[in-house]
Amino acid sequence: xPNDVELITRHLRAAVLGEAMPTFRGDGLGEMxxxxxxxxxxxxxxxxxxxxxxxxxxxxxxxxxxxxxxxxTAERELALMTGRKDL
Length: 87
Prior knowledge:
Layout: H1 4-16, H2 27-39, H3 46-82
Helix pairs in contact: 1-2, 1-3
């Protein structure tokens, strides 16, 4: 079973990639909301909360950088195929 950070990161990745998000009819939404609730709990020791939230933030940045890299690569390949010289 994935930990809270892995669960949130998996759903974040799905959202960035345009995949279906959990719905009210499945267990996924409740699991995701419970994981978010646990990570944002004031009962969580501050050092653990900072570490876990930093991991989620780093995963989000890595996803964005990956998508930007893929977009730039695709744009460059298109430019090469069409003979554009401005890239």
